């Protein structure tokens, strides 16, 4: 298990922020390279995320598409600065001395980011009202409070610390570290060794991780521009996420159901593990997500996938007692992947988490009978909360619907364990 000192060990503000490894360096943050247009783009992105309730990834994607002539450094600056301000939104608000209400306020918050990262501010009119002594004083005070220092809503800090009393300090700190980019080799088209060699020939360095198909990028870059991606040789998928389909252990020729398929990342992995043999049914309540899955399947060369939108309970009941393997990658809070989606923590509410728990248990109760006798089911989330994970599985096993299931194994992954996303994976078997 990796170790890292928490903030309680006395890291300074500068040391703490440097751990995030964002793209801005002292040189890049200086006024000689930084252009106001880039900062305006970040401020506009933040304004859309907070005040128009849009998802960060979609806002940035649209912003970059609208500026196709921007250089790679400019595009990286916009994306990484936006995400870093999102990560430390509460901390930066405390240092700024107010919660942003306008786009001009976000300019000032970006100024706080520059100062805490680089120790100086560009000599721009937008930053004239920022007083260094005030910033330093408020930063020192903010460091004394974990939820402010680590930048998380108070209610969420209290909920998670109650459920993870011994791990939360370290977990929270790691959730603020930018995630690595991990690729999953598409074994329908190539091998990990061949993919790694081909990427190297394109100047893309990677490192193999685990025993199967994962490669970690040596340097963050727009990997989707690679011809190898367009050829379907790989998908971008975190290492922890790749463990889900592997836990299901499908064998070629089996009938497998992915009941919460979404965009299909794990569905495509299952297709590869099945070697395109057997039947793979992908279900979701949103038909448009299945449309996206079909496009991805075509590029990946996955030919055994059948998509079915869940139109009513009848869709599920028609599949009862039919699957050798069932994957329930259920909707969850997403707290294990905050490094990738830092805006999630500002959009979540306690009521939403409670609703998600109800949905999770309902899916377990209703969908589990898709598994035939002797078959296996995997319940998975990208949450770190036991109330969404172990407790849900135990509640299911104690219920009438779960009386014929037994827990074979479960795996809880916290981001500090190996440096990848937080996940929970439970493997259950249906008995006679």
Describe this structure in words.
- This protein is α/β, with parallel strands linked by helices and 432 residues long.
- The chain is 45% helix and 15% strand.
- The strands form two sheets. Strands 7-6-5-8-9-11-10 form a seven-stranded mixed β-sheet, with helices on both faces. A four-stranded antiparallel β-sheet has the order 2-3-1-4, covered by helices on one side.
- The longest helix is centred in the C-terminal third of the chain and has 18 residues, at 350-367.
- The model is unreliable at 1-32 (pLDDT under 50).
Can you lay out the helices and strands and say which pair or pack?
Blueprint (H helix, E strand, L loop, with lengths): L12 H6 L7 H4 L6 H16 L4 H10 L6 H16 L1 H8 L6 H16 L13 H11 L3 H4 L4 H10 L4 H7 L7 E4 L6 H10 L4 E4 L4 E4 L9 H4 L3 E3 L2 H10 L6 E4 L6 H9 L5 E6 L2 H14 L4 E5 L3 H5 L5 E7 L14 H4 L2 H18 L3 E11 L8 H8 L7 E9 L1 H4 L4 E8 L2
Parallel strand pairs: 5-6, 5-8, 6-7, 8-9
Antiparallel strand pairs: 1-3, 1-4, 2-3, 9-11, 10-11
């Amino acid at each position: 298990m990796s170790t890292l000192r928490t903030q309680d060990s006395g890291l300074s503000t500068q040391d703490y922020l440097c751990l995030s490894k964002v793209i801005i360096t002292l040189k890049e943050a200086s006024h000689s390279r930084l252009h106001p247009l880039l900062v305006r783009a970040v401020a506009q992105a933040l304004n859309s995320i907070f005040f128009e309730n849009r998802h960060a990834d979609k806002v940035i994607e649209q912003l970059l598409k609208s500026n196709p002539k921007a250089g790679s450094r400019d595009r990286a600056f916009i994306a990484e600065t936006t995400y870093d301000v999102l990560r430390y939104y509460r901390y930066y608000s405390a240092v700024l001395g107010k919660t942003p209400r306008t786009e001009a306020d976000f300019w000032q918050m970006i100024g706080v980011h520059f100062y805490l990262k680089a120790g100086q501010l560009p000599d721009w009119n937008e930053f004239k009202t920022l007083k260094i002594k005030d910033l330093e004083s408020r930063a020192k005070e903010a460091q004394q409070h974990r939820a402010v220092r680590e930048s998380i809503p108070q209610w969420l800090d209290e909920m998670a610390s109650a459920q993870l009393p011994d791990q939360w300090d370290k977990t929270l700190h790691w959730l603020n570290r930018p995630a690595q980019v991990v690729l999953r080799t598409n074994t329908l088209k190539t091998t990990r060794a061949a993919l790694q060699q081909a990427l190297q020939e394109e100047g893309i360095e990677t490192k193999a991780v685990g025993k199967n198909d994962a490669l970690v990028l040596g340097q963050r870059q727009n990997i989707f521009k690679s011809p190898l991606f367009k050829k379907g040789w790989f998908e971008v998928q975190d290492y922890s996420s790749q463990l889900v389909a592997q836990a299901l252990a499908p064998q070629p020729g089996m009938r497998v159901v992915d009941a919460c398929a979404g965009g299909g990342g794990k569905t495509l992995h299952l297709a590869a593990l099945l070697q395109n043999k057997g039947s793979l049914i992908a279900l979701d309540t949103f038909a448009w997500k299945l449309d996206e899955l079909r496009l991805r399947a075509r590029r990946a060369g996955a030919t055994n996938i059948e998509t079915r939108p869940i139109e009513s309970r009848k869709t599920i009941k028609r599949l009862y007692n039919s699957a050798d393997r069932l994957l329930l990658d259920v909707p969850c809070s997403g707290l294990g992947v905050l490094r990738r989606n830092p805006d999630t923590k500002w959009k979540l509410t306690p009521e939403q988490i409670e609703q998600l728990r109800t949905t999770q248990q309902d899916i377990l109760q209703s969908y589990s009978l898709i598994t035939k006798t002797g078959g296996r089911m995997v319940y998975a989330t990208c949450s770190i909360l036991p109330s969404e994970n172990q407790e849900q599985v135990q509640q299911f096993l104690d219920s009438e619907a779960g009386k014929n299931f037994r827990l074979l194994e479960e795996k809880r992954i916290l981001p500090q364990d190996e440096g990848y996303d937080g996940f929970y994976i439970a493997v259950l078997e249906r008995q006679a």
